[in-house]
Amino acid sequence: MLKTRDQSELVNIGRITSAVGLRGEVRVAGDSENLREGKVLLLRRGKQEIEAACTGARYQKNTPIIKIEGITDRNAAEELKGYEIFIRATDLDEPPKGQHYVMDIVGY
Question: pTM (2 decimals)?
Answer without folding.
Answer: 0.80
